[in-house]
Amino acid sequence: MEKKHPLNDLMSTTIDKINQMVDTNTIVGQPITTPDGVTLIPISKVSFGFGSGGGDYGKTTPKENFGGGSAAGVKIDPVAFIVIKDGITRILPVAVPPTSTMERIVEKVPEIMDKVEKRFDKKQEKDPQ
Q: Of 16, 36, 100, 123, which alpha carbon lies 20 to 30 A from 64's?
């Protein structure tokens, strides 16, 4: 019987840990019922990634020395709530505020473009050629 390589164990452990963190209950949360009879169901967006790597080293045969590592990351963003009240269902979006300067800039681009366009339009009205 061939011995499993340590890298296989490393990757399996990483994937198992991600599976523990990310399941369907993370995306569609448990319903919450308020005292006035409204049911809220949270909806989230889940992003994750992982990497594993390693290598054998030394001059022994078969190689017995192994060095490796793994990393994983999970990001959970609230997206919306499903709101159920008096038999009527609707979706209430949740706006996630921008977290980085670049996201804030991208968010402002349409507004800036409108201002620039209006400025050019005014200039053309004053100076038609």
A: 16
Torsions phi, psi of 11, nearest 5? -65, -40
To which residue do tokens 């599976």 refer?
19
Kind plus residue range of the DSSP H or E element containing 42? strand 39-57
Instruction: Choose among 40, 15, 16: nearest CA to 28.
Output: 40
Distances 42 to 19, 23, 30, 36, 63 between C-alpha atoms, Å: 20, 14, 7, 18, 50
The C-alpha atoms of residue 9 and residue 72 are separated, in whole angstroms, by 15
Tokens 């399996």 identify what position?
A: 12
Query: Are 7 and 15 a contacting pair, CB within 8 Å?
Result: no
**How do residues 11-30 score in pLDDT, each as one tens digit?**
788 778 777 777 667 788 88
- What's the pLDDT at 39? 93
